[in-house]
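As a representative case, we now present a protein record of this kind.
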Amino acid sequence: MKNIEIITSQNVTLQYELAPLRDRVLAFLLDTICVVISMLILSALFSVVLGNSGVAAYILMFLLICIFSLYSLAFEFFNKGRSIGKMAMKIQVIKLVGGQATFSDYAARWVFRLIDIYFSLGGIASILIISSTKAQRIGDLIAHTAVVKTVPKMNINLDDLLSIHKTNKYVPKYQQAKKLQERDALLIKTTLERYRRFRNNSHDEAIELLSQRVREILAIDHVAEEHTVFLQTILQDYVILSR
């Protein structure tokens, strides 16, 4: 699975898993279904309320065109890069340089949908998403955006499996660690990895804040270890206690 790293304005490096073509196609199909259902409901309401007069037909046609053409732009702008289909598939449009994408960014993606998706029947978008390093179609390249998964996976490698095998006799130090959720453990693991790979003041601060927050959640009053050692111990305790 492809991944990208984004450095925020605070010099914090974030890693995202790029949304695969399958998820983006399914999101598009779900959005299409939502648009069609919305247009059918609106047409039925107009027929019941205003009848089939000429004026009503023109108004209805105008509204249907707006729904069809502006659906993706409106949802992505007002819902932070997520349409209904994207929310269902847990994917999102983000800015590659960090920060929130602007209206002009979403508008650029929207304009090039004509070439990427509609005029080429999705062929251009599919080829570019599969072949480009950041899974970008033309609209993404112009807007400097990418579509990523909003729910990261818990990456387990051989070292993780070996470390679990070696800790069969390990006695957890913090029994409270079993109160953590999987997403909490994932956050700790990811933060520690970012800290070790990119040592700077921002990541030092992130480690300290996360350590303080974990102690608050688990009601741990005093910790003698350094923040990184404490978080690593909590993570190891969680793995053992949740097996």
